[in-house]
Amino acid sequence: MVSEKIINLVNEQITKEQYAAQLYLSMSAWFYAQDLEGIGNYFRVQSKEELMHADKMFDYVNDVGGKIILNEVPKPPHEFDNAQEIFEKALDHERLVTKSIFNIVKTANEEGDFSTTSFLQWFINEQVEEESSASTLVSKIKMVKDNPSALYLFDQELAQRVFVPAAGN
Ligand code: FEO
Asked: The Ferritin-like diiron domain covers which part of the protein (predicted)?
């Protein structure tokens, strides 16, 4: 039995994942506008991953007999000063998401809600990966700085990313 409090937190998390999808899509658009389509691709794939996260939570609420309540997704920013700022904002955002998921796990632990803690284990592992990737990209964009050849190569590298749906999706 999953409490209403947990259902509410997971519903709120669905909105946070949807917001992350919007944020990354907006970041993607910024890079496409600069003709950096590889980096644009990276963020576009990231946006799809966030929608998949929201989808997993949607299924969970339904599976445990909760009521799915969708909230308004805030408008993402669309003005950015430079590429480094975007990567730093993406890392900050992942840290916020991690904190939010930890909060649900903490509440589930307090309630002895093993099904929710088990469900969220996948997300805890995912956040480790996401923070690690985001942090690496911040380091790389700092190395690139204003070097056009390095930026070209970085863009090529990120063009390789493809969306891979998680098992069960
Ligand atoms: Fe769904 Fe990037 O956290």
From this structure: 1-145
State how far the alpha carbon of 20 is from the alpha carbons of 3, 27, 90, 105, 141, in Å: 26, 10, 9, 20, 21
Q: Ligand 1, closest atom to CA 49? A: 1
CA 66 to chain centre: 23
139 alpha carbon to ligand 1 midpoint, in Å? Answer: 20
The class that CATH gives domain 4-158 is mainly alpha
Burial class of residue 149 in the structure, from the number of CB atoms within 10 Å of its CB (0-12 exposed, 13-18 middle, 19+ buried) = exposed
d(Cα 92, Cα 96) in Å, to the nearest integer? 6
The dihedrals phi and psi of 96, each to the nearest 5 degrees, come to -65, -45
* Residues with a CB atom less than 6 Å from ligand 1: 17, 20, 50, 53, 94, 97, 130
Q: Measured from the CA of 127, which atom of ligand 1 is nearest?
A: 3
Task: Tell me the per-residue pLDDT of 93-128, one tens digit each, with 9 for 90 and over.
Answer: 999 999 999 999 999 999 999 999 999 999 999 999
The ranges assigned to domains in the chain are 4-158
